[in-house]
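Annotators were shown the component list below and the corresponding predicted structure, then asked to write short factual statements about the assembly.
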Amino acid sequence: MSNPIKLAIGPILFYWSKDEVQNFYLQASDSPADIVYVGESVCSRRCQLRTSDWIGLAKDLAAAGKDVVLSALALAESEGDLIALRKLVAACAESGGRIRLEANDLGAVKVAAEAGVPFVCGPHLNVYNEATLAWFAAKGAVAWVPPLEAPRSLIAPLHASRPVGMATEVFAWGKIPLAFSARCFTARHYGLKKDDCQFRCLDHADGLTLATREGQSFLTMNGIQTMSAQHYSLLAELPALLDLGIDALRLSPQSKDFFAVLAAFDAARRGEPAGLPAACTDHGTCDGYWHGQAGIAKVGAEDDTLVVAASGA
Amino acid sequence: MVSSTPTTTTSAFRIPHLVCPAGSLPALKSAVDNGADAVYLGFKNATNARNFAGLNFDDKSLREGVRYARDRGREVLVAINTYPQAGRLAEWHGAVDAAADLGATAVILADVGLLAYAAERHPALHRHLSVQGSATSYEAINFAQDAFGVRRAVLPRVLTLAQVENVVRHTTVEIEVFGFGSLCVMNEGRCWLSSYATGESPNTVGACSPAKYVRWEQQGKTMNARLNGILIDSYGEGEPAGYPTLCKGRFEVAGETGYALEEPTSLNVVELLPQIAAAGVAAIKVEGRQRSPAYVGQVTRVLRQAIDALKAPGFAVKPAWQSELAKVAEGHQVTLGAYDRPWR
Amino acid sequence: MNPIAMTTRFTLPGLPGINLQVPTFRLPAFVTRIGQSLPQWPHALGLVGGLNGLLLLKLLDAEALEPLTGRVFAVEVEDTAAVARFTFDGLRFVPLLAADGPAPDLTFRATLSAYLQLLARQEDPDTLFFQRRLVIEGDTELGLLVKNLLDAVEWPRLPFIAERT
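Structure shown to annotators:
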């Protein structure tokens, strides 16, 4: 309660082995993070952890004193996806409010609302205005994550006029989840069909980088998800975020140095000097979205490794 | 591939409506004259997802378009399918009010706040859930029906035919699917690639890879296509070119250069029409409000013939249909997209 | 294919019910050579006259053309080597007669056949562009605006032409 802003560990967006996932959450339970998201939100074929395993993890983390949120799949396609969703909501209902749901589509909102389970509007629910935020609040939303492309000029007024009891959580660190597809780009890269992908995502703990033909790192392929190659970083904007009274910052898991990044944000929120470990990004950082520019742009302080797109001549 | 398929008659079978695009009054008339059951269009502003310079309708041309379509027994659907931006709700509310006043049959909406507004203010104006609303499951669609009285939902281009069938089975909302046009490989309404490169996206300003960021550079015999300075593709002499929509560029991944995300292709479901009709799909949509009246006329004429052929037993794809459609296809190739399992 | 022998009836563009088909052709090289040695200003005068005619008939909306003000356009016909350069002064289109004037903001380049197919609304500009039969260079947004303005022109229906379906 003494911290002016909470730190949230977002759901793991990559495909890691069960051991890696368990180790990660073991560290998470001991970390300064206040909120921890668990669950598979990207691809329903990923099966190192089953829905029941994720629910088990959620209970353990809740018992360790964390605020826990179960993340639902963003792109629900099959009957199986809906069955998994209903299991997550049932687990939230059983927890008596200890565990919440992160809804990333209207189907998840429906199932949560019908069960009376409080939910977080994930970044893919597309909350761009006050009427939509109020509407989700009426259905049981208790927190929202603005769309990743939202600038400060959109987040600030929505946060200022948010419904009573609604917390604002801003994505502040990590490769940006930019798009979802029916197609699996990782499988396609290996000449495999999605239905027979041989789980190649397991070989790419932080995704596969896509560069332009001039060698500019641009995007990351993560199965059916396309992400930025650069890491979004709002570390330098922490004073502004504190000033706005934002409730929480979401840090998105990665295989290397994640808890050092978390420590840097933790220090920064207490006003102590904070620095990012040198190897925590592979293609530099960006913050254009926050400043109302192209997402790939780097506007704020620090970092010199980024190749910023030259503007058109 | 499939040249002849018997027309099955199950309880779900229906002849789908043909919904065609219009970016201008001549395109609207071309769609109506060539047999569209409905025409969809947008206003000249950021309230629709094809907000391009010189394209779309003002009140005057919309009024005339509605009259032209209605006189011939057709419908006009107004797409207001971007996301209202904080503090600017009035612009989107104004668009919904104008659509109602000018006599549109339906508005096609994506934002839940706007759906709630339309349901409350204009209950007689039909509401369609836009593809930009990203409703991929019947739970999401039924929710929109309960909450906003949505009559029809446009499915994102990510589902297989079996998944489309499953959705239809579990809802009383009419289901509309894409039948022809440039293929969005990403789940519509949830793609920020454009704003990552340029700062502007379909959700916010209604345009993907906006033209003002596009530069074509001729370098000797090579033509480079850049988006805000980022090299999206380059074409050798005589190589077919594409607009630099960034998911359709050629990139390098682990030392291999190629179409890492999607080749410039068009979706074409003509050969699947019997299965689509058998699944109970209510409407088939043609993509391309940014295309010319010539394109609209060509595609509408062919799809009208193909859909009408469903009414008689023994549907067979005519080679002339496919060659006509292939000619106007982006990248000159066609695909069944996600409807077809092998594509996945 | 002998392009000179073609008997296709060319008529007002986009007229409904007229069954005209413009074939794809390329004029022979000697036409190009002759064209290169001819003065270019008649092309500009002709094109500009036509555009201003559209303005007079209110088929083009002068207000919608405002973003074109002061921009320089070039329309090149590859196989006749004709080049028309012109600008818009806010009220009407004006030919640019000096060959060494300012660099165009927007250049269209295609064969005569492709232009005729476009005007007849037989072919879609995007289709021609994808096939590299229409080259657009310069300011892409301006190009899109011009394309969309021309697409939105409602060619008049002439009462004496019976519509066929």
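Statements collected:
1. The mean pLDDT of chain B is 91.
2. Residues 193-258 of chain B form one domain.
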